């Protein structure tokens, strides 16, 4: 006889499913509201995030100085000044060699354009000077027709640059205050929160701080690997400006996707201008190979070890962050995923039952052997 469904169990399962679905919808709604509020406050949140990342990068030096008796304000001021000097030094290392060889690069650009025109004029394209002139005239006409769009795009770009400068200055000021007063934050936060929150929130914040530090260190290590391997490839091919290009690769490694594309494009263009199209294709192959190793091997392995996340989780997080919020989403995807994992692990620790201790063995009094128990005791005479 086939088994029939139980009405009681079916109704209980449906009620449980409905309750879980309602709770999940409520969680998703609250998450959407939180993200909307975050978007409205993004002009303040973004400098705060940048300042936190810079603080994790510079905090070890500040901690060393403070442990050796430096006042907090003096240590934070010195580290902030050193950070600015290092950033300026990186810019000088990139700009000065390029400026010193600007004449050779300009000559190479002109010769490259001539080579392209000669190649286009020959078979199989057979593009003559009249056709090139016609194309140039058409391009100029289109530019004249789209002057308004170009002006608006320029104004938008200038506004973006100004916002970037404001964000940088604000992040530097916040970094100074974090370096100066950072250790006081958790005790202050403990005094402000009531009850259980006074314990939970500072504990999660401390773990989150360690996670951000691990992210910055792992990203710096991955950028160093990119700079070394790409720099070696450029040196073997014989490309000029090897050291500035390697430094540019290391710096842009902190900006996912767009940083690698920008550094690779600059390296290929320099190679094309100085060495020709064959070496440029070789450099392009080297950069693509290194970037594939970095994105699919180095970065997931290093960050999974430092952040406690699986390599597949990191790849999926970067993909999702890029699809949702572009470059900023790709930059913040890994630390956000790591912070979510920190919160989840802490909640699991608090909600888990304490491990049960094994029961102590009950002492059993020793018994006489059966042979001795069977022999009756002798009566005294």
The count of helical stretches stands at: 13
Sheet of most strands:
none
Strand content: under 5%
Distance between the termini: 80 Å
The radius of gyration is 33 Å
Please summarize what this structure is.
The chain has helices at residues 7-40, 42-67, 72-100, 102-121, 129-145, 147-181, 185-192, 197-237, 242-252, 258-274, 277-307, 311-351, 370-374. The chain has 381 residues and is mainly α.
Topology (SSEs and partners):
Elements: H1 7-40, H2 42-67, H3 72-100, H4 102-121, H5 129-145, H6 147-181, H7 185-192, H8 197-237, H9 242-252, H10 258-274, H11 277-307, H12 311-351, H13 370-374
Helix pairs in contact: 2-3, 2-6, 2-8, 3-6, 3-9, 4-10, 7-8, 8-9, 8-11, 8-12, 9-10, 10-11, 11-12
Q: What does this 3D model show about the protein?
A:
It is a single chain. The protein is mostly helical and 381 residues long. The longest helix is centred in the middle third of the chain and has 41 residues, at 197-237. The protein has helices at 7-40, 42-67, 72-100, 102-121, 129-145, 147-181, 185-192, 197-237, 242-252, 258-274, 277-307, 311-351, 370-374. α2 packs across α3 and α9 runs antiparallel to α10. The chain is globular, with a radius of gyration of 33 Å. It is built from 13 helices and no strands.
């Amino acid at each position: 006889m086939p088994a029939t469904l139980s009405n009681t169990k079916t109704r209980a399962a449906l009620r449980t499913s409905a309750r879980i679905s309602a709770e999940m919808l409520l969680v998703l709604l609250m998450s959407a509201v939180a993200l909307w509020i975050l978007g409205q406050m993004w002009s303040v949140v973004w400098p705060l995030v940048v300042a936190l990342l810079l603080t994790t990068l510079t905090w070890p030096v500040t901690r060393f100085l403070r442990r050796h008796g430096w006042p907090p304000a003096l240590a934070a001021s010195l580290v902030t000044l050193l950070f600015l000097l290092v950033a300026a030094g990186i810019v000088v290392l990139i700009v000065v060699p390029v400026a010193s060889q600007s004449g050779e690069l300009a000559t190479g650009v002109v010769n490259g354009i001539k080579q392209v025109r000669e190649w286009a004029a020959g078979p199989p394209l057979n593009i003559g000077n009249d056709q090139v002139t016609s194309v140039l005239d058409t391009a100029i006409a289109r530019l004249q027709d789209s002057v308004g769009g170009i002006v608006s795009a320029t104004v938008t770009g200038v506004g973006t640059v100004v916002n970037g400068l404001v964000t940088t200055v604000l992040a530097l000021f916040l970094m100074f205050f974090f370096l100066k007063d950072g250790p006081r934050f958790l005790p202050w936060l403990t005094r402000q929160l009531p009850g259980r929150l006074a314990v939970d929130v500072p504990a999660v914040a401390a773990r989150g701080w360690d996670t951000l530090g691990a992210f910055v260190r792992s990203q710096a290590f991955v950028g160093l690997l990119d700079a070394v391997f790409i720099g070696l490839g450029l040196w073997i091919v014989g490309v000029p400006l090897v050291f500035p290009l390697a430094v540019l690769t290391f710096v842009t490694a902190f900006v996912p996707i767009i940083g690698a594309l920008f550094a690779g494009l600059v390296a290929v263009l320099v190679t094309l201008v100085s060495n020709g199209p064959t070496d440029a294709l070789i450099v392009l192959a080297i950069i693509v190979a290194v970037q594939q190793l970095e994105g699919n091997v180095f970065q997931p392995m290093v960050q999974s070890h430092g952040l406690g996340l699986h390599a597949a989780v990191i790849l999926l997080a970067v993909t999702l962050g890029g699809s949702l919020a572009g470059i900023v989403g790709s930059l913040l995807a890994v630390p956000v995923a790591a912070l979510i994992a920190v919160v989840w692990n802490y909640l699991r620790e608090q909600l888990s039952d304490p491990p049960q201790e094994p029961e102590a063995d009950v002492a059993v009094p020793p018994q006489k052997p059966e042979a001795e128990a069977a022999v009756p005791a002798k009566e005294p005479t």
